Amino acid sequence: MFLAIIASLLGAGYFFIKRQSRQSIIRYLVASYYLDPKKLKPLSTKEIIKLRHILETLRKSNDWETITKHARPYK
């Protein structure tokens, strides 16, 4: 019984941290690139992380035209 409670708490903690991490990335993308959060919500966590990685890589190389191309569907 005690192990079941611990397992439930750990599982809930894991999903809470994962959800907060996802929401943090969405807030960053909205603030940095003026993206619409409603259009980012249907994306999976992996897709959001991939989009952030692409945009950050392009920002470091100052390729603003390609950033606009990647960000346009989510504005």
What's the rounded overall pLDDT mean?
Answer: 93
Helix tally? Answer: 4
**SSE class:** mainly alpha
**What global shape is seen?**
elongated
Strand content: under 5%
Whole-angstrom Rg: 16 Å
Q: What helical percentage do the residues reach?
A: over 70%
Main β-sheet description: none
Instruction: Please trace the helix and strand order, writing H or E for each element.
Output: HHHH
Number of strands: 0
End-to-end CA span = 49 Å
Please explain how this structure is put together.
This protein has 75 residues and is mainly α. The protein contains four helices and no strands. The protein has helices at residues 2-33, 37-40, 45-60, 64-71. α3 packs antiparallel against α4 (64-71). The longest helix has 32 residues, at 2-33. The protein is elongated and about 55 Å long. The N and C termini lie far apart (49 Å).
Please give a handful of descriptors for the protein shown.
4 helices, mainly alpha, 75 residues, 80% helix
Task: Compose a concise summary of this entry.
The protein is mainly alpha-helical and about 80 residues long. The chain is built from four helices and no strands. Helix content is about 80%, strand content about 0%.
Q: What is the fold's blueprint, element by element?
A:
Layout: H1 2-33, H2 37-40, H3 45-60, H4 64-71
